[in-house]
Write a structure and sequence with these properties.
The chain is mostly beta strands. 0% of the residues lie in helices and 41% in strands. It has no helices and 13 strands.
Length: 169
């Protein structure tokens, strides 16, 4: 719903994105200075839908690409420092699927990184203050979080366990 600037909103507009959407993120995925939307959808054979923004609050029809086995949430960041947004998708079965952006609203095939069991949510931040984006997942089945430190080139270290057996640094 677009804001009118007076505390009210215009009527909502619905955009189809595929069955069972479970996560959404916003960013400029094609480098045109306009916000775009990425959505992960589909429980088995998850996909990422990209809706390129027109710059006026409307979006073009979605383009879809394979994301992984079981999509959950999605987060965006520039994982390899090339100025193009990439995405990470929590894959409820195996871990996190990282898809590097091509800069035109499309992505390279997913690369999977293992986490503890049942990652439902993924977030992006620089957890160790080294200037490289890292990933963290909330893992429902194992009741843990997993932290994957970024290498700055679009790849991530394997998760590490702390002394209590939980996921972490």
């Amino acid at each position: 719903m677009l804001g009118k600037g007076d505390g009210t909103f215009a009527p909502h507009v619905d955009y189809p994105v595929g069955s069972a959407p479970s996560g959404i993120a916003v960013g400029d995925f094609n480098g045109d200075g306009k916000l775009d939307i990425v959505v992960v959808y589909g429980f088995n054979d998850a996909r990422v839908a990209v809706l390129l923004g027109n710059g006026d609050g409307t979006f073009k029809p979605f383009q879809s690409t394979v994301a992984g086995v079981q999509g959950g949430s999605i987060a965006a960041g520039d994982f390899n420092g090339d100025g193009k947004l990439d995405v990470a998708v929590s894959d409820n079965s195996v871990g996190v699927d990282v898809m590097l952006g091509n800069g035109d609203g499309t992505f390279k095939p997913p690369v999977s990184y293992a986490t503890a069991a049942g990652p439902l949510m993924v977030i992006v931040a620089d957890f160790n203050a080294d200037g490289k984006l890292d990933l963290a997942t909330a893992n429902a089945t194992s009741e843990t979080i997993s932290v994957l430190l970024g290498n700055g080139d679009g790849t991530f270290h394997e998760r590490q366990r702390n002394l209590q057996g939980c996921e972490g640094l």
